[in-house]
Sequence to fold (194 residues):
Amino acid sequence: MPRTWYSRNMYKKYTAKNYSLKKDTGLSQKQIDIHLGLYQGYVTQYNSLIDTLEECKKNNHTKAFSECNRRINFELAGIKNHELYFDALTEEGVSIKKESEVYQDIIAQYGTYEAFIAHVKQMALTRGIGWVLCVHDQPAKAIHVLWVADHELGGIALPAFLAVDMWEHAFLIDYTPAEKGTYIDTYLSHIKVW
Ligand SMILES: [Fe+2]
Fold:
């Protein structure tokens, strides 16, 4: 039987990663626990929305279906952005290898890795609540440092390689708004370049 648009299995459910972060993250256990709880909440919400979508389709609730599709993008971005963020705080970490195309394109565009990081920090400091998402447009050999204020408004079909969470839940227990710069420096120091 041919698959139609309302077939089941159109969506994949996610399982939250069981993170074990390294000891010297610069963030307290309380801060980390709250943040990981929010990440797990995105996974729960996403999986629940899939079930709601199935119900909407079955019952032809088009308005609810439309709203679910907006939210599903929000929750999915919440999962993937947080995974990139927390991956960098594990022992394995997130690496930008010097022989990689992304590193070469960073250098071609910014001159130095430090200049790239300065751009990331400047955006993180000056835009308020949201994300700084660094993506690599490989065919164009371009690096984009993007501000994502709301998850579903910042989706882009390019691989992200760095994500700085600037929502206050990410740092406010440990760092005041005036100390955002220290939080940003601490987080970015975990990105391995080799
Ligand atoms: Fe967050």
Q: What stands out?
A: The chain has two domains: 29-87, 95-193. Helices lie at 29-59, 62-87, 101-110, 113-126, 180-188. Residues 29-87 form a domain with the Helix Hairpins fold (CATH 1.10.287).
